[in-house]
Amino acid sequence: MATIFEFEVPTNEFALEATLSECPEAVIEIERVVADDPDRITPYVWAHADDFAALEAAFDDDPTVEELTLLSEMGEERSYQMTWTGSVERIVPLLTDHEGTITHATGSVDGWSLRVLFPDRAALSEAHDYLEEAGFSLTVRAIYEAKDDGHIQHGLTETQHETIIAAFEAGYFTVPREVTQTELAEQLGLSHQALSEQLRRATGALVESTLITGGEKTEE
Fold first, then answer.
1. Distance CA 151, CA 129 (A)
2. What secondary structure does DSSP assign to 116-146, as a single string?
3. What sign results for the dihedral spanned by CA atoms 87, 32, 129, 156?
4. How many whole angstroms separate alpha carbon 23 and alpha carbon 17?
5. Are the C-beta atoms of residues 178 and 172 closer than 8 Å to each other?
6. Is the pLDDT of residue 152 over 60?
7. What integer pLDDT is reported at residue 127 of this predicted model?
8. Cis-peptide into 176, omega within 30 deg
9. How far apart are CA 141 and CA 198, in angstroms?
């Protein structure tokens, strides 16, 4: 059965150390990653920052950023397609040789938190051995099957479950929306950034559990 591995690594062992040091208030969220080259990866990310001019200048000077394309702007967030090289070379084998798929990752000045999906426990075990042998400063947060009963239904944590239900009930997902993200954050007593992260994590977990890791097909 597909297995999920959640862990943390320092920024200098993955990517954007220079950027996140220069802009310590910034948060980078990886939505998906293309790894088709042993020397680089192409992540699609959302960035949260107080000053995007400063952030993009930091991206330009960051040795791990080879290419940067702005995809969209939504209020306090921007979406980018990037090409990372340099220090990310060490983590590429996790995706290419060990069949890992980064389903979500969040980077800040404090480090990177990653969630990686593996096809089974054997692949995860080999990947874990690789990370240790490669000298990563690994902090393991969780290892669980994609449908582990120890986790909320559809891979959601309790907080993610409560947040996405509250958002649904408040009309956040209606068209047009009945509440903005800022208004919803105020209602839930969360910062805009914290709410955005919870909603993205919850949405990613739902996609992962229902569309990627064996959501059951129903007959019409």
1. 25
2. EEESSHHHHHHHHHHHHHTT---EEEEEEET
3. positive
4. 10
5. yes
6. no
7. 93
8. yes
9. 17
Parallel/antiparallel/unpaired status of strands 65-74 and 111-118: unpaired
pLDDT of 141 above 90: no
pLDDT digits (tens, 9 = 90+) for 40-79: 899 999 999 989 999 999 999 999 999 999 999 877 789 9
For residue 213, pLDDT beyond 90: no
CB-based contact 41:92 (threshold 8 Å): yes
- In terms of residues, how long is the chain? 220
**Amino acid identity, position 92:** V
Residue 49, strand partner residues: none
Tell me the average pLDDT of the chain. 86
Are the C-beta atoms of 118 and 100 separated by less than 8 Å?
yes
**Is the confidence at residue 211, as pLDDT, over 80?**
no
**Which amino acid, residue 158?**
E
Structural contact between residues 5 and 121, judged by C-beta atoms closer than 8 angstroms: no
d(CA 181, CA 144): 31
